[in-house]
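Apologies for my clumsy wording, but can you show me some protein sequence, whichever is easiest, together with the matching structure tokens, please?
=====
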Amino acid sequence: MTKVLALGGGTPGLGTIDGEDDFSFQELNTLPVSQTWYSPVDEAAYFFSLNSANVIAAAGNFTVGDKFESTRQLVCTGVRFFWKSVGSAKVVKCRLYGSGVSAASVDVNVNASGVYTGTFAAPVTLDAYKDYAATVYETTGTSFPRVLADGTGPAGAVPIIGMIPTGPFTIARSFQRNGAGDTVPINTSATSFYPVEPIFDAFPLNG
């Protein structure tokens, strides 16, 4: 049995609209949410298909990626990302950080613009309620992929940030993380999101 916060029902002190108690807990056998997964990589690929200028091959020495935390234990097998060509072959290091420490990495050769996947030599089991980051770093330290999210990019480019329901568990994500050099991304961009995401062995959507 699952308890969810719902509109209506009049639980005093829980929350009000116009002075009325409008929130209550309701018991449900299943969660009333869609099993959805937002992909900044697929969004970047779509924007790129509309206009290649929508995705930027930015100059700079930065690690960029997706910080996340799950309410359930998951297994991460790698990192998926969109790369905007800089006109020559590069090597991109895909890395998984757990609580600021590198947990796994793999190098991926890139050249043409498109979606790339880096698969770790061994899957990594992720603990629930622990901070992780799926990141990419171009090993010469001269470029990184980004999509503008400051109103000057393509319509709808502002990413989803916060709690994303995926069946009976939730992943909190931030797609705007960066860090100077080959390092854990501790900063949050106010003008960009980065087309990087973790790959999970399977979503435990029904159990």
In short: The chain has two domains: 1-32, 40-200.
